[in-house]
């Protein structure tokens, strides 16, 4: 298991507040009209495999691909599309607590359903906890333990190892690996509050990376270190910005660690 660096509290000097309702990024698979002012889209089609990642900005250094990430158990990589109760989101980071394995995604996703599947319809696991609003994270317990001790994300179509966690500062470069593509940008603000119809979510990070419906929960990282997960956006690609739930809160709340 990889050791984790200490998680510092974010600086309070860069507080910002999003006054407008900011759209959540979970995608409904039902053929219904999108809600007003919400950055969501609806598709009448069944879950499909993720599209090929879109290379944008500087390339992400990837670990050696080749062997499957898991040898027997059905699990996924950060950035893979995941499905529950007609909703598509993104797997964030793989986590563990002792011999029990989980993955992290957005809380507004885990409140939508209990059983999660991959793009082929195979069961991944069951929702184990949700915090939304206030925070925006949820954990899913894998149905079976993995046979290895690696955890990582799928960036530009290749495995990229995640070895720890970090708390970013304004200006730090970041990478997002989402079902809609792998993109790079920078941290623009810390301690952002975003207001949704369900209530406010506080303590978020604003980044200069766009995102699309279905990207909720996607991993945000830098230099092999986890920063957080996508939970909302203002605007659509190629413009717009995104909001990130820091990873430290769910790790502390559930006694989890990246691996």
Write a structural description.
By secondary structure, this protein is mainly beta. The protein has a domain at 16-32 and 39-59 and 162-247: Thrombin, subunit H. It has two helices and 19 strands. The strands form four sheets. Strands 13-14-15-18-17-16 form a six-stranded antiparallel beta barrel. Strands 7-8-9-6-5-19 form a six-stranded antiparallel β-sheet. β10 (152-155) and β11 (158-161) form a beta hairpin. The protein is globular, with a radius of gyration of 16 Å. The N and C termini lie close together (6 Å). Mean pLDDT is 79; it is low at 1-21 and 30-72.
**What is the number of helical segments per DSSP (H or I, 4+ residues)?**
2
The total count of strands amounts to 19
Shape: globular
Structural class: mainly beta
Straight-line distance between termini: 6 Å
In oligomeric terms, what are we looking at? Answer: single chain
- What is the CATH first-level class name of one domain? Mainly Beta
Fraction of helical residues: under 10%
Relevant CATH superfamily of one domain: Trypsin-like serine proteases
* CATH topology heading of one domain: Thrombin, subunit H
What kind of sheet is the major sheet? 6 strands, antiparallel, barrel
* Unreliable parts: 1-21, 30-72
Average pLDDT: 79
Strand residues, percent: 35-45%
Give Rg in angstroms. 16 Å
């Amino acid at each position: 298991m990889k050791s984790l660096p200490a998680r510092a509290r974010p600086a309070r000097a860069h507080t910002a507040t999003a006054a407008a309702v900011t759209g959540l990024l979970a995608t409904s698979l039902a053929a219904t009209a999108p809600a007003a002012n919400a950055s969501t889209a609806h598709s009448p089609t069944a879950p499909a495999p993720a599209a090929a990642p879109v290379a944008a900005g500087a390339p992400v250094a990837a670990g050696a691909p080749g062997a499957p990430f898991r040898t027997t158990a059905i699990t996924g990589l950060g950035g893979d599309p995941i499905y529950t109760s007609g909703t598509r989101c993104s797997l964030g980071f793989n986590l563990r607590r002792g011999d029990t394995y989980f993955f992290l995604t957005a809380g507004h996703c885990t409140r939508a359903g209990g059983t999660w599947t991959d793009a082929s319809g195979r069961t991944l696991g069951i929702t184990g906890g949700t915090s939304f609003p206030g925070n925006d994270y949820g954990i899913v317990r894998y149905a079976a333990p993995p046979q290895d001790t690696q955890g990582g994300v799928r960036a530009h179509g290749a495995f990229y190892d995640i070895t720890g966690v970090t708390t970013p500062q304004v200006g730090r470069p970041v990478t997002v690996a989402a079902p809609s593509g792998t993109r790079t940008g920078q941290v623009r603000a810390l301690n952002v509050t975003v207001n949704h119809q369900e209530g406010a979510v506080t303590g978020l990070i604003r980044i200069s990376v766009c995102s699309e419906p279905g990207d909720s929960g996607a991993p945000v990282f830098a230099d092999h270190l986890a920063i957080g997960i996508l939970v909302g956006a203002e605007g659509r690609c190629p413009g717009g910005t995104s909001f990130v739930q820091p990873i430290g809160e769910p790790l502390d709340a559930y006694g989890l660690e990246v691996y």
